[in-house]
Automatic annotation (TrEMBL), chain A:
Start and end residues of each stretch annotated as Disordered: 323-351
Protein's UniProt keywords contain DNA-binding: no
UniProt key word Ribonucleoprotein: no
Cofactor names: thiamine diphosphate
SUPFAM superfamilies: Thiamin diphosphate-binding fold (THDP-binding)
InterPro entries the record matches: DH_E1, PDH_E1_Alpha_Subunit, THDP-binding
Name of this chain's protein: Thiamine pyrophosphate-dependent dehydrogenase E1 component subunit alpha
Organism of origin: Frankia nepalensis
Keywords noted in UniProt: Oxidoreductase, Thiamine pyrophosphate
Amino acid sequence: MNRERDLEALRRMLRIRRFEEAAMDIVRKGQGIAGSVHVCIGQEAAVVGSCLALRADDYMVGYHRSHGHPIAKGAALGPLMAELMGRRTGVCHGKGGSMHLADFSVGSLGETAIVGAGIPQAVGAAYSARVRGTDQVALAFFGDGAANIGSFHEGLNLAAAWGLGAVFVCENNLYAMSTALADTMASESVAARAAAYRMPGVIVDGQDVDAVYDVVSAAVERGRAGGGPTLVEARTYRYRDHAEYGNMDLSHRPAEEVEHWRSRDPVELLHARLLADGISETELAALAETVAEEVRAAVRFAKQSPQPAPEELFEDLWATPIETTPAMPAPPMPSPPGPVPVAAVPAGGAR
Amino acid sequence: MRTMSYREALRVAMLEEMRRDPSVVVFCEDGRFWTMPTNGFVDEFGPDRVPVMPISEEGFTGAAIGAAMTGLRPIVDYTIANLMYVAWDQIVNHAAKNRYLFGGQASVPIVFRAAMKYANATAAQHSDRPYPQLMNVPGLKIVVPSTPADALGLLKSAIRDDDPVVFFEPLRLWGVKGEVPDGDHLVPIGRAAVAREGEDVTVVAIGDAVPAALRAAAGLAERGVGLEVIDPRTLVPLDKAAILASVAKTGRLVIADPAHRTCGAAAEIAAIVAEEGFAFLRAPIVRVVAPDVHPPFSPALERLMYPTPERIAAAAAALVRGAAPAADPAPPATAATDTAARDTTKELVGG
Ligand SMILES: Cc1ncc(C[n+]2csc(CCOP(=O)(O)OP(=O)(O)O)c2C)c(N)n1
Ligand SMILES: [Mg+2]
């Protein structure tokens, strides 16, 4: 273990957990987060261990359960929370919301609500680094459910055939919504599929941030050195149901299973390890309080931010604005008979 | 001026842009094969910029998106327009939306090339004209050039454009030769061309309906009827002003389009003219389009599908006579040649 890195890991894992708890609180109280919210509480070590293995200029692509990924990559919390609340100060100007956080300033290339679709995009980012002559690598996060969709297989095959610096991190939390992976996948593990693409496939304890860091670091170094891609399967667990439905009932899962995983909480495991390494409770409490205040500030920022203005509806669609020949003066309307409709529509109304 | 085929114009456009800009890359299955316009490119630009492509449309389209968001300008050649459907999620859900979803943090500068093999006895799975489907997706620019000069100038503009551009090529125009201006020939996206001036009827023609409309115009000119042929060249953005200006002059509108009738480009153009140019119209708008049935294999049947000079001439002539048909008459099964077209014209106009 590396004390400085573990302290940073704890800081980022706590940021994710407090951030998502705050989001859940806003959802519960009806204070302004609309739509679906998928939290990754329980999976923070897999998320943070992977991102700490990346350089600031490396790329990362997420999926629908991805508040944690940009946070772990170093994104500012305020614009992320404002995005969840659909505010104009949101990192995506309120156009993406919870399932489409992206912060290109930290190499977070965004999240997709289409299971698996981000995987080939990360491959493309790794390809781009090669063509541009940089040694950046690209990491794709995805769930176990994504291991059965075509874009997973096409993405892995492309990366392997082209020998790209891509790292594929499957956060295997055992379920896709209500469906157990064991019922939908015949192979013994997700990692076993790496063999078909002649890349290393590694299973790692996703609750142990150091273990994840070590495995992903080796994959990142291999990719950076031109050794090709790696598939990592982090075994982990989510404490909440698929999304914040309002009624969290996990009774469809075996109680012993829930017990087992909660006894291996990634934040508590790391906390205990740091204590054993001689960091004081006071120091850890101070770190936790700093993070809590960061999250409170992010919530204040988001709640105080203005809603987007109606004209922002059309912003961000085109990079090069659409341009045509100048409009003709409107032709005179034919004289009656005929309804007299057009002028009655208020200017600036919904288009 | 130089003379070159449409196909050669595509090749020259890609060559010139790849020489000008090292971030331009080509994704094309069998792109190094002697039948492809990119044949030989690998010798000049190397295997990274002209990679060997697996048959993996969804995967390599996703990779192109990841590459485009990180500094490259991929040209993705589907070789057959129908193969785009395999990558539909990446094109529609990601290429078109990522910029908007991410609040303008990244653009997706890709050119999707799609050769349309209709009228070529390849049956329904190789013969689609899918541009109307994509006109329904905000965020994509859509280009359908009809001459070598426009193919060259618009492909170069598309490659330089920061938005995703879908570039549709009627394959039966690939062999057609035409004059092309010397030098760095660029045609702006969003400007229609007046392919022929005339006073009596506006024919808005798309793709290879343009040469068909020009032949109809030549035939009708002998009868004293003047067709003005407008080639929109780009469907998104659509040069509404140019179309309305022509209809303001002629008062009559025929729209010729080889795509299906329902919700097609012709339907959209008709709606725009009905909404914004109603006062100009002296007769109902007529669409000369493909019927809502799949392209059949049998050439004897497929011949009935697409706008021909005789169908366009018949529609225009009927409008001038004031005997406006409610719609395009049934495809003239017996009038498959130019001679027959002139006979039909004689009957309709002279009679
Ligand atoms: C292609 C696709 N199919 C189905 C869905 C609906 N859906 C959203 S998340 C999800 C489960 C995904 O499970 P997993 O990949 O294991 O991720 P987790 O939610 O467990 O983090 C499903 C079925 C979708 N968004 N995209
Ligand atoms: Mg899962």
